[in-house]
Fold each of these.
Amino acid sequence: IKKLAVLTSGGDSPGMNAAIRSVVRTCAYHNIECLGVYRGYEGLIEGDFKPMDARSVKGIINKGGTILKSARSKEFRTVEGRQKAFKQVVDADIDGLVVVGGDGSFTGALIFNQEFDFPVMGIPGTIDNDIYGTSHTLGFDTALNTVVDAIDKIRDTASSHNRLFFVEVMGRDVGHIALNVGVAGGAEEILIPEEDLGLDRLVESLNRSRTSGKTSSIVIVAEGDKIGKNIFELKDYVDENMEGYDVRVSVLGHMQRGGAPSCFDRVLASRMGVKAVESLLDGETNYMVGLLDNKMELTPLDKAIKGKSKINLELLRVSDIMST
Ligand code: ATP
């Protein structure tokens, strides 16, 4: 292997820049060339490449987003699209590809490998933490800190006005973000897709905390929660079935994806980049690098895609006890 390429794909997450930096500098350290691919698989198809040396990634470890830009590419889902991408890769003498992204991006990488026997390595970049084979995806920790900050601010206004806030957080089909920020932000209840609390129990629990003397409450709702109502319908239902609270909704949205990566994510990105490049140099392919037991480990891409990341339900119990 003499030349590697790196791209970021799918939804962006804080720490992607730190990962790009790590991949580029690990290549420089091992005296191999590195190309940055712009706009994910779109750029791979179009040959939108830029040579990157160690100095080209200065000043980005602390930046959110991705300097290489991200994209969703319909064309890469077709054989013709991937053939174009392979031609670009061959023309540019690229010997291996590091893909920073989520399970969709890994699926694309795996298919690309199967069709053209081309070495690929994945780095899990998503705030949702929904990927098997790593305790933390890149950006998850930063998102948690961003959301907890927001909840603290909402709490200030909630307690000044006797308000009950429903706060919707990201996380797609899993409740990792909701569970963690719920505990850290002192939420009354946490609604996650993995556990259906039911509307009656929710109202019951809120009434209980009201009569126990609480003047404000925060309920964290994971965007993928399946209680059967969206957050605005939830608000209306509670409004109709509870007295004494002014009920409000706050949907945090895309701010959760932005911002400077936390110390944890910068360290994780640096470790993942080194592991990804060195694994390719060792002749490995079709793996995702991940953090398991505080070690960098490889998980086969197909397992990472199909496996389920485990939710820590102990946190639900901790939250219940804390909201006594
Ligand atoms: P996020 O978790 O943030 O959504 P992701 O990597 O899962 O990130 P996707 O939009 O699912 O995001 O996938 C990113 C890109 O990967 C797609 O736009 C497409 O180019 C490629 N891709 C996804 N699935 C496939 C597939 N089955 N075959 C080929 N390419 C795919």
Amino acid sequence: MTSTGKPDRAAWIQGPSANCDPRPERVQAPWRLILLGAPGVGKGTQADLLHQRLNACHLSTGDVFRSAGSRAECDQSPAMKAALQYMRRGDLVPDSIVWEMVLERSGCLRCGGGFLLDGFPRTLAQAESLKQLMENQRLDLTAVLNYRLPLNEIVARLSGRRSCQGCKAVYHVTERPPRLADICDRCGEKLFQREDDQPNSVKVRLEAYEQSTAPLIEFYQGSRMLVTIAASGSPEEICERTIAALEDWRKRNSEHNFRNTLGPKP
Ligand code: AP5
């Protein structure tokens, strides 16, 4: 367990041979959510806050790639080395590599505590594969949260982001600074600036989003799973907005007979 007292996502980050400590509790109707939105819109920040309210685990494909990147080169598979090259440039990692990595961790999708998928799916092919997998496993997706923010605010968020190399917590130099410069409030590890937050990579990432990921909005709209959320304001305000939208969505879809109860405010 990390010093945050939260599940450490070991099985997700390290792979199927790792166990999470503590194991998420099985709940009667787990939240199974996908977080969609442009790079830098705040998906990771919201996933972290939503985890505290809904107890579902935060599963980020970007975190898996970054963790693999921090291992010694000799410990990286050829597929992972190739994936990291794509990532550094800001390009999407090919679907086959991403899907293999998710499939290895599909136990996390079956987890009784639910999940908050951040950064996956990102292409129509990935969305189709996930749909198939969930149908085969008889798992229901609760909703897809689509976060929206004007481009200039997205760029400002990306250029000031700092991330913890230990517990993966995310900060912003002006909007969400750590108490001590460059040190994580939660675990005391050093903060770093992501390689793909450099201006050239940001441009490529935003283009990749428009071309490959934005079509997922229509895909999920078509299956009536989409809940759109304005991502302006403080992270806590956006989280409250998300919870309200989910409650409203659940009421409107009462035939699904959701029995979830929202956790207390952290
Ligand atoms: P990934 O790690 O998924 O990156 P991303 O989608 O580009 O999203 P980000 O992590 O950049 O942003 P975010 O929306 O989570 O924002 P955050 O909360 O950090 O993927 C990285 C790369 O991996 C991809 O480019 C690709 O190469 C590869 N990859 C991963 N998954 C893949 C897949 N499925 N298929 C193919 N390739 C894949 O917030 C950003 C900043 O804003 C922070 O500094 C934060 O503190 C600040 N902030 C957040 N909210 C607020 C607020 N309300 N007010 C002010 N500041 C805020």
Amino acid sequence: AARPLLGPAEIRALAEQLGIRPTKTLGQNFVIDPNTIRRIIAAARLGAGETVLEVGPGLGSLTLGLLDAAEQVVAVEIDPPLAEQLPRTAERFRPERADRLTVIEQDALRVQELPAAPSALVANLPYNVAVPVLLHLLGRFPSLRHGLVMVQEEVADRLAAAPGSKVYGVPSVKASWYAEVTKAGTIGKNVFWPAPKIASGLVRFVRRDEPVAAVDRDLVFAAVDAAFAQRRKTLRAALAGWAGSAAAAGEILEAAGIDPGERGEKLDVHQFARIAQAGAAAGL
Ligand code: SAM
């Protein structure tokens, strides 16, 4: 049977009881709509026996849904009163499942160890750090096989963008180093309290079975950063700093089979990996 989720009345009561006022700096917009939680859970496509990592559980809207759908939930929350309250909320609304929840009071950007290897990431991410958190977790926890995150809609578009698209950029390439990324829907503002100024998007990712290439990730990412730092420049010019000089960049690009007159926004992650491989062969 479907278990009750937190609606506007419960969320407000919890916030009042804790004496908290949602803060913008921590991206605190709490979901007050059970249907949105059900949508997120369905889009996450959790299998049997999953250990789900949730970042920013807040007052627990999504956490309760995850407790119903997962074997274990590890929730990382930076705000102490919220982290302290969450186990009590789980006890109150999911007494028979509360022991599946582990709460860690920490900045998700700094998490290095978790009590269990997470198989999935399901989160309504704090908007101001959504991309760095996602990339950090994908890099740090290879056990994360798939996930569904809610982010600002423009960030969702950017993460899922293909080469040549206007919004294709650093987040698109770096995310696709790890995973296949797709946009899985749009969420209106009114499902949150307080309502944010802009709509949200759902992003689904599935980790690649095979790495893109056998090459140092940091060398690839440095080339990506350089290519997009000067978006309007040719790769030969934009990668001059990365390669040591424009001439060296030109040679590396030629060796990688990529036109030095091309722009970075046209290249996919495989092409960036080839550039890094050629750079490594040239001694970078
Ligand atoms: N999951 C809840 C929901 O859907 O109602 C809350 C989502 S709210 C958009 C983002 C949450 O992330 C807040 O609870 C905030 O305190 C927390 N947060 C912000 N920055 C964080 C960070 N660096 N690490 C962990 N949690 C963070």
